[in-house]
């Protein structure tokens, strides 16, 4: 009997047009962001549309993603903005590193 690899899950932040940050989890954050943009996502975006997927963090499984989502939602806006900046810096440095 072989054990399948656990499906990766992600916690993500989406910036709304009014500057607010929405935190959620998904096994495909890009698809989920597209759903938010098309109005099929969270009610959060009814008053201010989704603008950008600004942060994605990989988690070992759905349970870990849910725990991380809860921790991020408990942060204040300045701490969430620091996460966004740190994630952008990591993405830039990874893109600059040689293959």
TrEMBL record:
InterPro entries: GIY-YIG_endonuc, GIY-YIG_endonuc_sf, UPF0213_domain. SUPFAM superfamilies: GIY-YIG endonuclease. GO terms for molecular function: endonuclease activity. It comes from the Bacteria. Residues 7-82 form the GIY-YIG domain. Keywords: Endonuclease, Hydrolase, Nuclease. The keyword Hydrolase applies. The keyword Nuclease applies. Belongs to the UPF0213 family. This is Endonuclease. The lineage of its organism: Bacteria, Pseudomonadati, Pseudomonadota, Gammaproteobacteria, Pseudomonadales.
């Amino acid at each position: 009997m072989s054990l399948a690899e656990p499906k990766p899950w992600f916690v993500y932040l989406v910036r709304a047009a009014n500057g607010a940050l929405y935190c959620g989890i998904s096994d495909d954050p890009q698809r989920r962001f597209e759903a938010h943009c098309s109005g099929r996502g969270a009610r959060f975006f009814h008053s201010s549309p989704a603008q950008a997927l600004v942060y994605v963090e990989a988690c070992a499984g759905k349970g870990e993603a849910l725990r991380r989502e809860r921790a991020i939602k408990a942060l204040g806006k300045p701490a969430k903005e620091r996460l966004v900046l740190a994630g952008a810096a990591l993405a830039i440095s990874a893109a600059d590193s040689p293959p």
